[in-house]
Amino acid sequence: MGRKGREIVGPIVDDVIDGLKVSYCNELMAFHYYWYTSLYMQGMGSLTIAGKFKESAMEELKHAGIIAERLNQLDAMAPSSPSEWANVSILGDADPSKYTTLRSAVEKALEIEGKAIEHYNELIKKVKDADYATYDILQDILVEEVKEEQDLEDILAKLELVEEEGREIIEQF
Ligand SMILES: [Fe+2]
Ligand SMILES: [Fe+2]
To answer: Which is nearest to 134 in space by CA: 89, 73, 91?
Structure first.
């Protein structure tokens, strides 16, 4: 652990650690959501979206790794038990088995990204003037979450267009 690194965060350090633990659990829940959905998604066009979801799963796992490293620097451990991931995360019920159609999977992913974005935004505000290292890390992650949300919105918009026109989805992605 970095003694000075922890010390300079000051009195909010425990608050920051709690926030990072929530982030870690969100990331692992999101990872599993994307991963599982990519395996079981059904319907036309789902192969392409499954590939995109697999990439998103890897990105969430990368985020979890970055968060765990920051927790380590602050002399804290990431939550280790899967039941804790579900309880500490603010994503709510993210059981991927309920979202196996293309549209429902994308809509649920958008909901997950929205909640993750709100969470990071709040945490960034909290650390802004006290913990520059966490501030930096969270900003980078937030930018990637916002990009993911935009990609999902684009997919959904295309999906709606295709449904309206009754065309084959598979050619659209
Ligand atoms: Fe993430
Ligand atoms: Fe994400």
So the answer is: 73
